[in-house]
Protein 1
Amino acid sequence: MAAKSIGAVTFDTFRGVVDAGGAEVQTLDRPGRSFPRWRILGTKPRESQVNTVKQYDSADDMHTAITAYDLMKGTIVTIYDTKNRETTNAAVLDMQIVFKGTALVNGATKYRIEANWTVQAGDPAA
């Protein structure tokens, strides 16, 4: 799969890193004990924010993409960042379009979508 993608959609610009999670430690306070106790609960990824930009050649392509973006909410996808690092089983929790409209690129009119995504990495074994 190509770098800079969420699911089947590739982007021109991809900003942000998907947090893969780490060990979550719980401290156990025990009255009468002078030393702390703790336990490791396992790995827990946090929600991550990703910003994407994509330019399209026509308004129809832009509107089709907006529909595709909306349909990805609540799904499990594979994400590739700018360094082609793969995050499998990532949940798309939310997506908000920040900008949609025309942009002049190298003298040509393009149709641009900028979106903010809220994603969360899942269990790599799932």
Protein 2
Amino acid sequence: MEKRMILLVVVLMVLSVYTSAALALPPMGPPKAGLKQGQFSVGFDFSYSETDAKVSGLGISETLNDVESFTYLANLGYGVADNWESFILLGLTNVEFEDFKGSSEFAYGFGTKVTFKQGDPLTWGGLVQMNWAKSDDSITGDVPGYGIVTADLEIDFYEIQIAVGPTYEIEGMRLYGGPFLHFIDGDLDVNVLGVTGTLDVEQESEFGGYIGAQFDINENTSCNIEYQLTGDASAIGAGIVWRF
């Protein structure tokens, strides 16, 4: 019973100082297929995001404000058909908040893009992508009445992004964007003196919109930059892709 009380106090302490985590908004790119049938691509995406997240469990319900994240992902794509491509995401995720310096852990995911209506200069399409990530470390603090204690923390989650919209193409450049949905589902595990408690983590707001631009470097290489915004989150991202 005493150890569980220490666990609850530590959880409250963690929530009171929580300013950064692995929750992310990875770049999505144009909401349409960008590869021809049988074509491959290799790319790299980077994003920085701020997200408000809901945390609940152990009789606690709190909102973590301005949860920050850096995301680094390799993107490997394949053209299933001229209007349909699939891709996998591989990379690293790091978590940091106050004295918590999280480990860089393997992150992975997958997704698909479909062109609904091909036009010149306007094309309509959509995408779905999903990824998983986690990070862990320890935090030491002074718990009133119990002295200095060390808590082992681990956060793991998955997220889903669903977007539809237009892509407007002019010579050497594409402008894109549209509405999207963003879902997060994860756990924050806290272990103190052999007692473990788990908190549920999810997004504060699901609906948002995004806008971006993609520029051709040469016939097979392009780069892009985009901005995402929901009711409680924002992100800026960039990427480069080689098609072969």
Protein 3
Amino acid sequence: MKREKFSGTIEQAYGKPLATAISYEAEYDLFENISEVRSANEYPSDSDVVKFLNAQKKANARQKATVAALDAAGIVKPTLENDSQFRLREMVKILVAAGKSEDEARTLASATLGIEWDTE
């Protein structure tokens, strides 16, 4: 086993944007081979494998059905090419990652792209 560290930033909590992003760091033990999994007694049982694979198949089918239903309803997935508000949000993410505050990033993104934020 080896120890692995990772970090991230939380920009939303419980469905709402945070005023200030919160950074976090964590670490965990990473298995390097199957014998380590078995010796740690964490190898899944046959029923765990069946449950996992069935959940995976159900999630895949749900995702395909959702996309088909949205397509049939004429709802288009927002992309950089077809949604100006999406472009603004993506640019804000980049600017915040570069060290700008959320407010600065929103103002700069709007001015740079020449797009106003929707008031919804």
